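Why ABC transporter, permease protein (Cluster 3, basic aa/glutamine/opines)? Reviewers of the renewal asked for a concrete example.
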Amino acid sequence: MFPVLLAALLLLAGGGVARAENALEQVRERGELVIGTDATYPPFESKVGGRLEGFDIDLGNQIGKELGVKVRWVNSAWDGIFPALRTGKFDLVMSGVTITDERKQNLLFSRPYFLSGQTLARRRGDRRIGSADDLPGKIVCVQQETTGQTAAEKRGLPPESIRKFETLPEALLAVRNRQGDVAVGDLPALRDLIRKGYPELEVIGGVFVQENVGIVADPRSGDLIRGVDAALQRILDDGRYGRMYALWLGEPLPAADVARLNGLAAVGGGGVDSGSAFTIRWDLLQNALPLLLRGAVTTLYITGLTLLIGTPLGLLVALARLSGFRPLSTAAAFYVEVIRGTPLLLQIFVIYFVLPAVGISLPAFVAAVLALTLNAAAYIGEIFRAGIQSIDTGQMEAARALGMDYGAAMRWVILPQTVRRVLPPLTNEAVALLKDSSLVSVIALTELTRVGRELSTNSGSPITIYLAVAVLYLAMTLPLTYLVRRLEDRWQPISRPRAKAVAAKP
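Here is what the prediction returned.
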């Protein structure tokens, strides 16, 4: 079944429309340059109030001015920024993107416009870490799908020692909460974030990986990148670049950096002729599938453990809500309303990042299962409560008349009928839980969606990866719905014989 589903869905993506080669002309015709950015990376880009500001923002606006068009910025999550570029949502991406050989295979880069590098941040006074040579044996926190993650991986660290977060501030927060030992990130970004909100941390050592930052375009936008390169050179020559650098970096532009920037030629990229953004890369899929399957196993493990704990806990919540003991029913109702009234993502964030502030620090896996269990128990409790209340009251009265106490009547009469009735909504909850487990990636757990986003961002071929992820989720949910359907048929003692009788009629 799985290979058939995979082939069917992937073939749907085979006939996309390629972007036109005259991208710069199209930009000028509509009078607007659309630039995507992840505004969580000061001093390059951040959101203050309702506006975006930072070095990249000012530089991008000046590039638009040189091209004779207005600039419209789109704030996008980092893990989706390159897929959005490839599917035509943006003309360019400016988000402190480091130029790497891997990215150049599927993306087109401008000439470098900023010289950067990876460095370390630790808790103040933590003498265990003095340089990158001290990383082995430590828990290293990074922003996912960045060159900070790549730099940590290239030090030979095992995967379990690298914790990947959605944003760099979350990585720093984990270090501050002692859920990690050190953070790896771009030197300007680490300095700015620590200065603004993490006084407990400090940057140590110098840059241990030199990097160049560039502007990204779709591989079919060569004329647009050539226009951007020319605009960058004019901005650098007339002093505007130096003024923006001093404003956002807090120091004058070093003369050596000016010389290096002037000496760096256009980078290019887009080595793989991927044609349409919807082209499927079967070679990439072959290499990615083992990693995706491991992520799927993690997803199933988390979901199964959550259901194993959350289902009986939900039943207890339902019984508590139906209890005649007012304090217990009130407490259960309060718990349900709090859980249902707040987003699951916020609950995960509070359990993992906020509880350490009061002395409760949980491992990422434990925090994920706890958050999902508490959330699922509230919804499962309401399912059970509705199922119990749907049973005719005469059932309980008859059981009591036969001499059963309340507990025995509930156990032997009410609950068996309830389970049959609530099986379909419980199945829906299980399927929803399996998909909601993707949210635990915010606390550095590598489940299926996280693996897919990493592969998508690093490969530059989002359609291939995301369709494979979708097929894997489908392959995990279909057996569950099939099993429940069989159980429903098996547990219908009245309708089953009737259906057989109807089928047997000539």
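The chain has three domains: 18-113+215-269, 115-212, 282-504. This is the kind of structural detail the renewal will allow us to pursue systematically.
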